[in-house]
Amino acid sequence: MATIREAGTTRKAATIRKALVIGAGIGGLTTAAGLLRQGIEAEVFEARRTPGLLLTGGGFMLWHNAFLALRRIGLDEAVAADSVRMRFHEFRSDTGRRLARWHLDGPSERCGAPACALRRSTLHKVLTHAVGDHRIRLGSRLTGWTEDGEGVTAHFADGSTARGDVLIGADGLRSTVRARMRRGFEPPPRYAGYTAWQAITRLPGESLVPTGTFFNLWGRGGLRFLYCRLDENEVYWDAITSDRAATGLDTLRHSRRDELAAAYRHWPDPVGRIIASTDEEAILPVAVHDRPPGGGWAHGRVVLVGDAAHPMTLNLSQGAGQAIESGVVLAGLLGRTPPDEVPQALRAFEAARRERTADMVGTSWRIGTLGLVHSTPLCRLRDLMMYVFFDTVARGQSYGLMLDDRLERGPVLPAAGSAGTG
């Protein structure tokens, strides 16, 4: 039992005093910010050495549930201030036919939180500011840890160590913490069969890409295309290509931009203009992976969060949102946990989050399989299904999965004075 000595007396520590967070991504920084808000010290260790490498990635959607979670740690307004509120989510075919259009203002008003598009780096900067640069140790590659009845000691490649009450693995899809929890063996991440070519381009013109609408285009031949405006000058886009479609992309002899422009040459405006306006260096191909839902996130004083625990494909735009939710839930539990009850609290965290994230992983995977269809007749059947059901049944199921009453009712984590600001 950890103790605190005061004026010759000894008393039990009411809560943990320090957490070691491995990974300075969205899940790790959210957890650290939530702990710091409650007066619990958190130190974040990141293997990458250059701060700029933490700010990579394009744009993405952050849905209502993520803002509800951010509100509990006092960061929702800061993130929304540098985001673009989405009012519509529009599904179209590769002929330009509208298949469904979701109005987002109603759900935003009912749950009290917006859905927004933003740069990934914007969210990361807000979270970094909340944690404080001085609490983030770059170039710290974890090699292992040791536990005892009083806490956990992390060991790093440079020979340094750090001591805390709990070690939180937030180091992504190919997590070192996850692998070491499993003694070095685990099946590799599950490849989804498609690649997302992500980019942000400079493309002014409200009539070309209207602000406030997220466009989601589904095509034949294993192709999809997503885009939305981030501000008056910038547009975020994703070209999603199945492996079968990608075999026709010759990036050995031609640029990525030219090959994608050729693949999408018959798609409706503004797809061609979006691709043509993009710098070659800005186009980043990302092979899409997840892991089948499963347990084993918590062991002793060590726990996984975010993509280290529940990575998912991009089809629900919930990877970041679920990392945020998990970080807030974990921070809330640890904020009221005595040091000697950490293992029980970590198991309770896994029990609280496992079913919800498993539903997200499974649903996102199934949606992704619809984009692997190649034949024209099957694509027409898929489009007809979307036209008939997406504005009603699919929308209801999506919001039923997304909005968790516990988030809407969840209390703001109590502020304890000086958390953050580096």
Automatic annotation (TrEMBL):
<keyword id="KW-0503">Monooxygenase</keyword>
<dbReference type="InterPro" id="IPR036188">
    <property type="entry name" value="FAD/NAD-bd_sf"/>
</dbReference>
<keyword id="KW-0560">Oxidoreductase</keyword>
<feature type="domain" description="FAD-binding">
    <location>
        <begin position="19"/>
        <end position="361"/>
    </location>
</feature>
<dbReference type="InterPro" id="IPR050493">
    <property type="entry name" value="FAD-dep_Monooxygenase_BioMet"/>
</dbReference>
<dbReference type="Pfam" id="PF01494">
    <property type="entry name" value="FAD_binding_3"/>
</dbReference>
<protein>
    <recommendedName>
        <fullName>FAD-binding domain-containing protein</fullName>
    </recommendedName>
</protein>
<dbReference type="InterPro" id="IPR002938">
    <property type="entry name" value="FAD-bd"/>
</dbReference>
